[in-house]
Amino acid sequence: MLKRWKHKLPTREKIFASRFFKPFAHLFDKPEYWAFKRDKVALSVAIGLFCGMLPAPTQFCFALVLAYFLRTHLPIALFSTLYTNPLTLIPLYVAAYKLGSWLLYGSMPLTELVMPALDDAGFWQQAAAWAARFGAPLAAGVLTIGALLALAGYVLVQLIWRWRIHRRQNVRKQRAAARISPQRHEP
C-alpha cells in the first residue's frame, strides 16, 4: 500500500514546475524534504492535518513553511491539507465554532453566527463587531480541532507503519520457516 501511494505522490520536478512553488525550489532541494521514512511521513501528515483547518487560502503556505522548518516530507505535508474542501470546510468550521465557544464561554447559541449583509449600511463596523465577537471562539476551535487532528494523524501513521513492518516480518519468518523445515512425504 505504501509503495502504491509513494509512486502517486508528485515528484519534486512536478511540484516546482508550477509557478507558485518555483521560487521555493532552491530551498527544498535537500533529501530530507523527500525522504519517505516513518517519522517524517507521520510529522508531514500531522502538519497537513493541522494546516488544513486554517483559512482556505493559507493552508498550502503554512504547510510549506512548517515542512521547511521541521524538515519533513513536502508532498505529504501539502497533500494532507486537502481534506478540507468546499464541502467539508463549512461543517468543520461550524464544529470549530461550537467547540471554541464551549471552550471559551461554556456555550453560545449558533443562531447569532450570521454575518451582516454586504449591502447593509455600516457593513464594515458590523463585520468588525461580528469578528470581535465570533472570531475568538472560531479561532480557538480551529486551532483545537487542528491540533487534535494532527495528533491523531501522527499516531495513526506511526501505528499503521509499525503494524505493516511487524506483519511483513511475520510473513518473512513464515516463509523462511517453510523453506527450512523439510517436507514430509509419506509412502
Structure, described:
It contains seven helices and no strands. The longest helix is centred in the last third of the chain and has 58 residues, at 123-180. It is elongated and about 85 Å long. The chain has 187 residues and is mostly helical. The protein starts with a helix and ends in a 7-residue tail after the last helix. The model has no long low-confidence stretch (mean pLDDT 82). 22% of the residues are buried. Helix 3 (38-52) runs antiparallel to helix 4 (59-70), helix 3 (38-52) runs antiparallel to helix 7 (123-180) and helix 6 (89-105) crosses helix 7. It comes from Uruburuella testudinis. InterPro entries: DUF2062. Residues 22-169 form the DUF2062 domain. The chain crosses the membrane at residues 41-70, 76-95, 138-161. This is DUF2062 domain-containing protein.
Mean pLDDT: 82
User: Mind summarizing the main beta sheet?
Assistant: none
The secondary-structure class comes to mainly alpha
> Which overall shape is indicated by the principal axes computed on the Cα atoms?
elongated
Question: Rg to the nearest angstrom?
Answer: 23 Å
Order of helices and strands: HHHHHHH
Poorly predicted ranges: none
Instruction: Quickly count the helices.
Output: 7
